[in-house]
């Protein structure tokens, strides 16, 4: 038997417990039936244990999503924690699936588990990556779309961590606008 | 009292004993 040093068994606790979800678009089932909780974790090592053993987002079939949300918040508009909120949306072009998507998603995950948003951590609900043939999307979901200053600070931090060039803007859309939109996209409440 | 981890700190554990 291998003798394991106690140091090897120490795990680093996270500020929040996070749950990873997976969505696969099976049109024969209800939307909610297609959304599955993979597992929840609350240490750095358990995050990596999960991340290292699931498929990279860029290799998922079109129509699939990964979501990482605080434990207890479901990755849907209807959840009590999400319904007054919105999301910062990063739209990727088709080329970026191979060049940027996995890096963007990992960086977003590290922002979440590492509490990169500092005092605004309570505004953060989670994030979702949508794999779609028409264009992949990364969304950072927040709790309250009316909190303008907080929302803008979160957007700026996200843009900084993803190293999105200054000249490229990203928009924030309230879930209530997205749910009632007439066209293909909801209006931006904020932009950075 | 909050647990903040920067990206470099988090990345060093990707291939840690407990993670693999």
List the helices and strands and how they pair.
The complex is a heterodimer of chains A (192) and B (20).
Chain A: H1 6-9, E1 13-23, E2 35-43, H2 44-51, E3 65-70, E4 86-91, H3 96-99, H4 101-113, E5 124-130, E6 137-142, H5 148-161, E7 171-174, H6 175-179, E8 190-191
Antiparallel strand pairs in A: 1-2, 1-3, 3-5, 4-6, 4-7, 5-6, 7-8
Chain B: H1 7-11
Q: Summarize the amount of helix of chain A as a percent range.
A: 25-40%
* Radius of gyration of chain B, whole Å: 10 Å
Oligomerization state: heterodimer
Strand content of chain B: under 5%
> What's the story with the biggest beta sheet of chain B?
none
Outline the low-pLDDT stretches of chain A: none
Number of strands of chain B: 0
Largest interface (CB within 8 Å) is between: A-B, 25 and 17 residues
- Overall mean confidence score, pLDDT of chain B: 90
How many distinct helices of chain B? 1
Order of helix and strand elements from N to C terminus of chain B: H
Number of strands of chain A: 8
Largest sheet of chain A: 8 strands, antiparallel
Structure description:
The complex is a heterodimer of chains A (192) and B (20). Chain A is an alpha+beta fold and 192 residues long. Chain A has 6 helices and 8 strands; from the N terminus they run H-E-E-H-E-E-H-H-E-E-H-E-H-E. Chain A has helices spanning 6-9, 44-51, 96-99, 101-113, 148-161, 175-179; strands spanning 13-23, 35-43, 65-70, 86-91, 124-130, 137-142, 171-174, 190-191. An 8-stranded antiparallel β-sheet of chain A has the order 2-1-3-5-6-4-7-8. Chain A is globular, with a radius of gyration of 17 Å. The model of chain A has no long low-confidence stretch (mean pLDDT 93). Chain B has 20 residues and is mainly α. Chain B is 25% helix and 0% strand. The relative contact order of chain B is 0.19. The A-B interface holds A 4, 8-9, 11-15, 44-49, 51-52, 107, 110, 113-116, 118, 121, 161 and B 2-7, 9-11, 13-20.
Features:
A: alpha+beta, 6 helices, 25% helix, B: 20 residues, mainly alpha, elongated
